[in-house]
């Protein structure tokens, strides 16, 4: 059996506390775990951040220190369980979120699917609630060593879309840890951040469509 692992970035995750805290520090916010409280429907979450990181800044998240060591600080907070949450949007499709990370005000969510089409459906669902939703990483596991190449027609992309993809790749936008964030790439291109994410989303949709079409022809 083969499967896919995707990491999706939500550049504008609304009132996500994890993303809000990450916007106030240079270090990623990760090791996120959460649970729901039945009595009032509140969601209790914890996250980790480098021990020497400062999280003071312009965010309204009420944080409670839980644990600390020489490498990491753990904080806990509560949020309204009825608020739109990107993790909940994904998990309502029946797909567990395996990793949550906040970085530079964006939210990065990883999950696994059996079919490539499921990833496209999840991305579409997220875009109904949030702006700036992009596929950050997409990998596939294979049962054997046989290659499974897909030919993607570069002509399907506009010149501007190719330029944006190439610039983002060269600047390390798709790397982990990131060599550049959306604002950095937008500045390099001389466009607004929203314009960059819009063009990148359109390019990724075209590439995803090409992969899905090729996958469908093989079945």
Structure in words:
- The protein has helices at 17-22, 86-91, 116-127, 159-170, 182-189, 193-218; strands at 3-12, 30-36, 43-50, 64-68, 72-79, 97-103, 106-113, 131-141.
- The strands form 2 sheets. It has a 4-stranded antiparallel β-sheet. Strands 2-3-5-4 form a 4-stranded antiparallel β-sheet, with no helix packed on it.
- Strand 4 (64-68) and strand 5 form a beta hairpin.
- It contains 6 helices and 8 strands; from the N terminus they run βαββββαββαβααα.
- The protein starts with a strand and ends with a helix.
- The chain is globular, with a radius of gyration of 18 Å.
- Residues 1-141 form the DmsR-like N-terminal domain.
- It holds the Pfam family DmsR_N.
- Residues 157-209 form the HTH bat-type domain.
- InterPro entries: DmsR-like_N, HTH_bacterioopsin, WH-like_DNA-bd_sf.
Quick take:
With 219 residues, this protein is α+β, with helices and mostly antiparallel strands.
Brief descriptors of the model:
219 residues; 4-stranded antiparallel beta sheet; 8 strands; 6 helices; HTH_bacterioopsin; single chain; DmsR-like_N; transcription regulation; alpha+beta
List the helices and strands and how they pair.
Blueprint: E1 3-12, H1 17-22, E2 30-36, E3 43-50, E4 64-68, E5 72-79, H2 86-91, E6 97-103, E7 106-113, H3 116-127, E8 131-141, H4 159-170, H5 182-189, H6 193-218
Antiparallel strand pairs: 1-7, 1-8, 2-3, 3-5, 4-5, 6-7
Helix pairs in contact: 4-6, 5-6
Strand content: 25-35%
Cα end-to-end separation: 15 Å
Shape: globular
For the biggest sheet, the summary is:
4 strands, antiparallel
Query: What quaternary form is this?
Result: single chain
Structural class: alpha+beta
Placed side by side, the strands forming the largest sheet appear as 6-7-1-8
The low-pLDDT segments are none
How would you state the average pLDDT, rounded?
Answer: 84
The radius of gyration is: 18 Å
């Amino acid at each position: 059996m083969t499967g896919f692992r995707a990491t999706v970035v939500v550049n504008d995750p609304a009132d996500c506390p994890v993303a809000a805290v990450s916007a106030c520090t240079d270090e990623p916010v990760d090791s996120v775990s959460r649970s729901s409280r039945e009595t009032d429907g509140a969601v209790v979450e914890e996250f980790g951040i480098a021990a020497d990181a400062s999280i003071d800044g312009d965010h309204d998240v009420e944080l409670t220190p839980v644990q600390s060591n020489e490498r990491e600080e753990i904080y806990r907070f509560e949020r309204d369980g009825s608020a739109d949450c990107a993790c909940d949007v994904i998990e309502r499709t029946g797909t567990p979120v395996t990793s949550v990370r906040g970085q530079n005000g964006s939210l990065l969510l990883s999950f696994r699917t059996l079919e490539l089409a499921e990833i496209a459906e999840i991305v579409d669902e997220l875009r109904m609630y949030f702006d700036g939703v992009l596929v950050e990483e997409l990998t596939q596991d294979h049962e054997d060593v046989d290659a499974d190449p897909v030919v993607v027609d570069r002509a399907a992309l506009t010149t501007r879309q190719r330029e944006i993809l190439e610039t983002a790749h060269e600047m390390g936008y798709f790397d982990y840890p990131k060599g550049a964030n959306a604002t950095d790439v937008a500045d390099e291109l001389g466009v607004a951040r929203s314009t960059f994410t819009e063009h990148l989303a359109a390019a990724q949709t075209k590439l995803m469509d090409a992969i899905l079409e090729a996958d469908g022809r093989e079945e």
